Task: structure prediction
Amino acid sequence: MVKGKVVLPLDDNYEEERKIYNAMIDKRPGIIVKCKDLDDVVKAVNFARENYLEVSIRSGGHNGAGLALCEDGLVIDLSEMNDIQIDPDEKTTKIQPGLTLAEVDKATHEYGLALPCGVVGTTGVAGLTLGGGMGYLSRKGGLTIDNLLEAKVVLASGEVVTANKSNRSDLFWALRGGGGNFGVVVSFTFNLIPVKNVYAGPMFWPIEQSEEAMKFYDKITKNASNDLYGFFAFLIVPPGDPFPEHLHNQNVCGVVWCYTGSVEEAEEVFRPIREFGPPILDFVGEMSLPSLNGMFDALYPPGMQWYWKGHYINELTDECIQENIKHGSKIPTVHSTSHFYPIDGRVHEKSQKETAWANRNARWSQVIAGVSPDPMEADKVTKWCKDYYEGIKPYATGGAYINFMMEEGQERIKVGYKSNYERLTKIKNKYDPDNFFHINQNIQPAK
Ligand SMILES: Cc1cc2nc3c(=O)[nH]c(=O)nc-3n(C[C@H](O)[C@H](O)[C@H](O)COP(=O)(O)OP(=O)(O)OC[C@H]3O[C@@H](n4cnc5c(N)ncnc54)[C@H](O)[C@@H]3O)c2cc1C
Result:
């Protein structure tokens, strides 16, 4: 018997419990086990294995491809395991996998500390971490995995192990970018960095200025200190507060900035940025880090249709910029967007081989997201995303951030891991030789 609830297809709450963030995904699991603790997770793993059930792992449920769910099998749902402990002296935190980024942010902010993670508060910290984890603090603090100190994992055999630099270091290496392939992570210990308030927010320019804006952004961030982060975006201005009415529904380009230095320095850093254009919207100012991290949560509530794909980009050549403008000027819905997340700064301090995450040489991880609240628009946003993705292919390095992928097949996963793939297959063979955990961006065990 597990302590948590077990939800079955005929239960009243089944429809609610099988929902995940992306409403385009419509899978019907046979059993959902809402684990309460480690013991529940071990029991769920053993039950699934002994009964030859397919198994998926759900933490925040944000995965675009819907890999939190399986068809017919058993979902190990960790959303109710959400304890967090902070050691302010050591600047570390120990967290359970059910926490969202907003929950982690809120707790660490109390101590003037932060975990480098993602840009939308409702995202699950577990799946984000295991894929790599990039966001506003990447340049200053590295990827989320670069701050991972230890993980406790339930293996396919049901055994519970701890992985860190000196204990099961092969598993620890693989967990840092290898996704949910190696077991169920029931606790993460992270290093935290001191960040409380930031000077941050969005700045927009007219779409007609995209070429100059992209080149300006490229140049300014290339030469900036690691305190300055900004992701470039093509978007449509949402028709509502706080955006001024004359900009509503306008297709624009922009950067969402985050500066972690002092406010006085920020004014200096942003002077040339503000002189460029000038921007048609400038919401950049001092705010708490959780406010920045939660800025887009209301715009992107759960339950919308999402189809997204990613690329790694090394250089914004003239041709690459033109192709981006071509598609970025045809955004089909107000929620659809394309972002360039910088993966430079401290991310580049580690080598390609130091963790499983193999794309530290790239400068951006691009995501192209076709999004709509209306299921009738699912085909429209999907087509825009696919066309945009195909258009950028010649300018990309190959592969994509696993957390920005749909189900795109083995070859693309392999390409994304580059020369780390072979080592991953060997570690997979050691820890999960039967590929019990295969509902993920799958690494197949070496034979
Ligand atoms: C709106 C939005 C914004 C995003 N922004 C960012 C961003 O800024 N930066 C970024 O890096 N990513 C971002 N992402 C991508 C995000 O990292 C992935 O969607 C990730 O899968 C979310 O983690 P989750 O716990 O919510 O995933 P879930 O959907 O719960 O799980 C996804 C997969 O992760 C694995 N997994 C999850 N939990 C565990 C666990 N405890 N043990 C083992 N395996 C596990 C499993 O393979 C599972 O199938 C964003 C996603 C969305 C939808």
